[in-house]
Design goal:
This protein has 18 helices and 27 strands. It is an alpha/beta fold. The protein has 2 domains: 5-213, Glutaconate Coenzyme A-transferase; 227-285 and 338-491, Glutaconate Coenzyme A-transferase. Helix 2 (35-48) links the parallel strand 2 (20-23) and strand 3 (55-58).
């Protein structure tokens, strides 16, 4: 190998204070494992010595505790984008110790190439193979890594021998769209079309060192599904079955996109059990454990995704039965996997989760009480406006019933009523297509709100009899005020 082998500590010491660093990875999948920890230790030592050391962190999506979390824990982050979900970055953003730009994840790479965002001067990339002429075989994700490698002045590699490059090369389809005014359409007509390269090409002169590792992705299995999440899944299945039976979905089916987490897993598992919904393909951001299970059952035929975000046991299942899975999985950069034009072209059924919804169909995916970031918007906005079906789901209540997920007005808006077709809770389904604001309110209250909150929501709606969207701005946040003042939204003052 022509490249200098470094320790993680030597690699960390090469990154100066104030640097903008692009990290590979999408959540834990394909993220560097040892260099970020060494950078966190370096930051701690610098701070203890009375010296400033902080960086701006760019990633594909979140990088959990492996990257962003450990650095945020040492107050080593100036800025982070486009997504976060770790407790450490959440705390840093909400306390104002870190600037966080919550960005549609499909947009960041192109905005960097446009010059609208700071470009990374250093890229830290996990791969499982590198050639002397700069061909990289990435591991379990693509994210924004191809653009980071293109723009960075300096590249540091984690060469991870845990993965077999002969297998991983079969799973990657690396394609960077051209930029305006030369941009043409992304030539993806069938989800299993290969439109790019199996490897990522970088200038070998940029590679300043390689750190050798042998590490899995350290992704834990999801928690067991609750009765509530299982019921949400059942309600989703019944809704989609009705759409098939009504002929609104073609008999051969439409591809699915699903968000991340326990609700998303419950939804996919339930849809996969249907005897009415035909076997389906997926075009989604994150390939989760449930998708692999559905592939084994013959229910999911193919998945085009940005990453394989599965627990270590499931990843071994893929590797050990690679002849079966190699034709069923294809990884793409996030600006392709989440591209709105592709979502519209293929007629995607998009199923994502919400924190809260209001009675008129607006969705808050990111902020608690309108101020405190929980997670970022991720890819939901990339898909929502362009999908054939845009469906948001969530439990109807939280905190033992003290919080209603259905409120008069969302405290923060990520998806407007114009982009939301269906809302699903464990209580039922609200089909909002073609309805006026007052009609939407009546359907959401009746079908999705928890029974304890329906009288309060009806009382709010009855306060205003005029106007196209009948809000009472004096009482619009009465639920949130009640929780802030008393710890229980059921104490909302609507008199």
């Amino acid at each position: 190998m022509r490249y200098k082998v470094l320790t993680a500590e030597e690699a960390a010491a090469m990154i100066p204070n104030g640097e903008c660093v692009g990290f590979s990875g999408f959540a834990n999948a394909g993220a560097p494992k040892v260099i970020p920890m060494a950078m966190a230790a370096h930051a701690r030592a610098e701070h203890e010595a009375g010296r400033e050391w902080r960086i701006s962190l760019m990633s594909g999506a979140t990088t959990s505790t492996l990257v962003a979390g450990c650095l945020a824990g040492e107050d080593a982050l100036i800025r982070h984008m486009p997504y976060q979900s770790s407790p450490e970055t959440r705390k840093a953003a909400n306390e104002g110790r870190m600037h966080y730009n919550d960005l549609h994840v499909s947009l960041m790479a192109q905005q960097m190439r446009y010059g609208h965002l700071e470009r990374p001067t250093t890229a830290v990339i996990e791969c499982c193979e590198v050639t002397d002429d700069g061909e990289l075989t990435l591991t379990t994700s693509e994210g924004n890594t191809p653009t980071f490698g293109l723009l960075a002045d300096r590249i540091i590699l984690e060469l991870n021998s845990f993965h077999d490059p002969r297998q991983l090369r079969c799973l990657h389809d690396i394609f960077i769209p051209s930029d305006p005014p030369q941009r043409t359409f992304i030539p993806l007509n069938n989800l299993d079309d290969r439109i790019g390269r199996p490897t990522m090409k970088v200038d070998p002169e940029k590679i300043v060192g390689v750190v050798l590792t042998h590490e899995p992705d350290y992704i834990a299995p999801f928690k067991d599904l609750s009765e509530v999440t299982l019921q949400i899944g059942e309600n989703m299945r019944k809704f989609l079955e009705a759409e098939y039976l009504a002929g609104r979905i073609p008999a051969e089916g439409l591809p699915l996109q699903s968000g991340v987490g326990n609700v998303a897993n419950a939804v996919l598992a339930s849809v996969g059990q249907s005897t009415i919904i035909p076997p389906f393909k997926m075009h989604t951001e994150v390939l989760q454990d449930t998708v692999v299970d559905l592939m084994k059952q013959g229910r999911c035929l193919f998945a085009s995704s940005c990453c394989i975000h599965v627990c270590d046991e499931t990843l071994q299942e893929i590797y050990q039965n690679f002849d079966f899975y190699r034709s069923k999985i294809l990884l793409r950069p996030v600006e392709v996997s989440n591209n709105p034009a592709i979502a519209r072209r293929i007629g995607l059924i998009c199923m994502n989760t919400a924190l809260e919804v209001d009675i008129f169909g607006n969705v808050n995916s990111t902020h608690i009480a309108g101020t405190h970031i929980m997670n970022g918007i991720g890819g939901s906005g990339d898909f929502a406006r362009s999908a054939a079906y845009t469906i948001f789901s969530c439990p109807s209540v939280a905190k033992g019933g003290a919080i209603s997920a259905v409120v008069p007005m969302v405290s923060h808006t990520d998806h407007t009523e114009h982009d939301v077709h269906v809302i699903i809770t464990e209580q039922g389904v609200a089909d909002l297509r073609g309805l006026s604001p007052r009609e939407r309110a009546e359907v959401i209250i009746e079908n999705c709100a928890h029974p304890e909150y329906r009288p309060l929501l009806r009382k709010y709606l009855a306060r205003t009899t005029k106007g196209h969207t009948p809000h009472d701005l004096h009482k619009a946040f009465s639920f949130h005020n009640a929780f802030s003042d008393t710890g229980d939204m059921r104490n909302a003052d609507l008199d």
